């Protein structure tokens, strides 16, 4: 009896451990939707970063492992999923560093070193803008590539006596980045998280960041204390970016590299939604990834942008405009040809000088009245 009981208990614990571990493994994927671009809704693009429970980036997932919901409901959508590293897309990076007086020494030097190493990691399709944190975002360099970048610009950045108005600087920076068009845009901030006497409050900053949809990655460093670093973590969590803490100042370049790795090893998820209408309202996009032994999901808000004229109608108008332009050109050519024919001008040419003659001319007037011009024309024709 005791033997049977022990066997039952052992069997129970074995089954529980097997199914228990399986259940735990099913929840070990961290799916983070970094950015959703929906300006061409119902076509939209979601840049997605996936990590395992050890924080390691996962690449090479099959498209069939992805599923999608909007506002918790299943959607009908055409999807195309491509690893960012296999695409021909570039990234528009904007980096803001801290150069106030408290950063003197290693904090400032390693930030500069991180920028120089960052440029080496850029692809030929990427662009980079650099700003400093001050009363507003201070411009250092704009839209350079890895080939046009001049390292001397970094060495010329000097420490500032101004206060680090972090919130004001980020607000100013976001407005500048929002005005850019084209590439995938990413903002990176290197700071200790301190804000001194900003005109904008943290709540105002949060609202602006939420509306922008831009991912903000942050690299934190301890200079005076750890108290302000939570500001950076909150900003990244809110915007779909990631926060990296530099235990030592020499970790700053490596942490900046981790940001690049996140971006380059993300997935481009392209969707064409069929059953959720454009209404200029906020909706929640959910991307779920499920493997045999692991699963996870990420959620990100987006605006279902409603265009005054449907996209298909815009395409029709464009095609009609092209056809109309081509038709006008053809009409002008036909009209000119008919006019020449009405004047008796066809393709008839003088056999001697090669000038065009009317059909009713018995002799060439060029040869008769302008012999020198006729001889020159005839000579040119012979040379050809």
Description:
The model is unreliable at 1-25 (pLDDT under 50). The chain is 37% helix and 27% strand. It has helices at 2-25, 106-121, 152-155, 166-178, 202-212, 229-239, 252-264, 311-342, 365-369, 371-383, and strands at residues 30-37, 43-51, 66-70, 73-74, 77-83, 91-98, 127-133, 138-144, 184-191, 216-221, 243-246, 267-273, 282-290, 295-303, 345-349, 356-358. The longest helix is centred in the last third of the chain and has 32 residues, at 311-342. It has 10 helices and 16 strands. The chain is an alpha/beta fold and 384 residues long. The protein is elongated. The strands form 4 sheets. The chain has a 6-stranded mixed beta sheet with strand order 8-7-6-9-10-11, sandwiched between helices. The chain has a 4-stranded antiparallel beta sheet with strand order 1-2-12-5, covered by helices on one side. Strand 10 (216-221), helix 6 and strand 11 (243-246) form a beta-alpha-beta unit.
Question: What are the main properties of this structure?
Answer:
four-stranded antiparallel β-sheet; 37% helix; 384 residues; alpha/beta; 10 helices
Summarize the topology.
Layout: H1 2-25, E1 30-37, E2 43-51, E3 66-70, E4 73-74, E5 77-83, E6 91-98, H2 106-121, E7 127-133, E8 138-144, H3 152-155, H4 166-178, E9 184-191, H5 202-212, E10 216-221, H6 229-239, E11 243-246, H7 252-264, E12 267-273, E13 282-290, E14 295-303, H8 311-342, E15 345-349, E16 356-358, H9 365-369, H10 371-383
Parallel strand pairs: 6-7, 6-9, 9-10, 10-11
Antiparallel strand pairs: 1-2, 2-12, 3-4, 3-13, 5-12, 7-8, 13-14, 15-16
Helix pairs in contact: 2-7, 4-5
């Amino acid at each position: 009896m005791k033997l049977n009981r022990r066997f039952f208990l052992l069997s129970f614990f074995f089954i529980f451990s097997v199914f228990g571990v399986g259940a735990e493994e099913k929840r070990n994927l961290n799916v983070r939707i970094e950015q959703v671009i929906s300006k061409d809704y119902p076509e939209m693009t979601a840049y997605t970063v996936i990590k395992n429970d050890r924080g390691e980036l996962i690449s090479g997932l099959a498209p069939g492992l992805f599923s999608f919901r909007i506002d918790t409901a299943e959607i009908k959508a055409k999807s195309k999923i491509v690893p960012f590293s296999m695409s021909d897309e570039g990234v528009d990076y904007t980096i803001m560093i801290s150069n106030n007086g408290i950063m003197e020494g290693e904090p400032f030097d390693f930030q500069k070193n991180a920028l120089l190493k960052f440029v080496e990691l850029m692809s030929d399709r990427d662009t980079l803008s650099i700003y400093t944190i001050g009363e507003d975002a201070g411009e250092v360099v704009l839209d350079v590539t890895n080939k046009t970048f001049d390292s001397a610009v970094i060495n010329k950045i000097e420490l500032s006596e101004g206060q680090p108005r972090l919130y004001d600087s980020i607000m100013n920076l976001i407005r500048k980045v929002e005005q850019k068009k084209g590439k995938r845009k990413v903002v990176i901030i290197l700071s200790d998280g301190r804000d001194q006497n900003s005109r904008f409050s943290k709540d105002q900053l949060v609202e602006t960041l939420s509306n922008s949809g831009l991912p903000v990655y942050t690299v934190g460093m301890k200079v005076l204390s750890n108290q302000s670093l939570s500001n950076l973590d909150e900003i990244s969590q809110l915007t779909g970016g990631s926060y990296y803490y530099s235990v030592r100042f020499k970790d700053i370049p490596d942490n900046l590299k981790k940001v690049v790795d996140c971006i380059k090893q993300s997935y481009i998820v392209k969707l064409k939604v069929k059953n959720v209408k454009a209404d200029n309202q906020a909706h929640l996009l959910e991307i779920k990834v499920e493997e045999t032994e692991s699963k996870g999901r990420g959620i990100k808000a987006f605006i279902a942008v409603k265009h005054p004229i449907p996209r298909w109608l815009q395409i029709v108008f464009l095609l009609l405009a092209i056809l109309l332009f081509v038709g006008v050109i053809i009409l002008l050519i036909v009209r000119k040809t008919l006019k020449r024919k009405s004047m008796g001008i066809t393709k008839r040419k003088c056999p001697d000088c090669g000038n065009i003659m009317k059909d009713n001319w018995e002799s060439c007037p060029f040869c008769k009245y302008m012999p020198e011009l006729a001889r020159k024309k005839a000579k040119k024709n012979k040379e050809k």
